[in-house]
Amino acid sequence: YGENRMKFIHTSDWHIGRLFHNVSLLEDQIFAIDKIKKMSKEHNIDALVISGDIYDRALPPADAVSALNHILEAFIIEMKIPVIMIPGNHDSLERLNFGSRFMTKKGLHILGNLRTVNEPVLIENEKGEACYFYGIPYNSPSEIRELYNIDVKTYDEAHRFLVSKINEKRDEIGRSIPSVLLSHCFINNGKISESERALSIGGSDRIGWETLQDFDYVALGHLHSPQVIGDQPHIRYSG
User: Fold this and answer.
1) CB under 8 Å, gap of 24 or more: what pairs does 142-147 form?
2) Which residues contact 92 (CB under 8 A, 6 or more apart)?
3) pTM score, two decimals?
4) CB-count burial class (<10 Å; 0-12, 13-18, 19+) for 189
5) Tens of pLDDT along 109-141?
6) Which of 126, 104, 112, 6 is CA-nearest to residue 52?
7) Would you call 167 helix, strand, or coil by DSSP?
8) How far apart are CA 200 and CA 198, in angstroms?
9) Which stretches of 75-154 are DSSP H helices?
10) Residue 47 phi/psi, 5° resolution?
């Protein structure tokens, strides 16, 4: 991201543990992630972003958990690359968020708490360059109503509210340091692919992109087709 600024790789929707016609895709998934590891070394990146749906289901099989553990060890311990992730709709927010407070000291930053979406992770590299990372896990209007005691009826209203909380924090700490937002959601006019499952019918979960424009980069997850949103090159799905 940028020539003389922080470098990170934006990924999403790993769906580790997914089956295709009852055949595990784990070997193929590990092969693809090994390519990301190679790219990370070649480009000397400062962070790896995973914008949700790390696992394919809320209760992942043991081999999927073991695979993710080895992958994270490779990035964080061997390569010294911090990882920032958020839960998606296929993940269990509670399970993925387990132990996140003490793991952050090692370089694994799981932004999975809807109460603290306005608390960023600050990543700094050896050159003294820095970037704030904020994360909005997949959520529903009912969850936001209950957590914040606020009257939001749609996914768009809930997402706008959470973005407003983040922007209040950005105004408070100043905007001289770039800010990246991770969000797992269905942005208006986003193109779906054949690999998505259980997306809502009728557009009830669609979210507007207009409130995202003043972030330095928006790392989206949920749709599996790589794309730019609203003709804004800094708002995109990685695919």
Assistant:
1) 143/114, 144/114, 147/114, 147/115
2) 58, 59
3) 0.92
4) exposed
5) 999 999 999 999 999 999 999 999 999 999 999
6) 112
7) helix
8) 6
9) 93-96, 100-103, 141-148
10) -165, 155
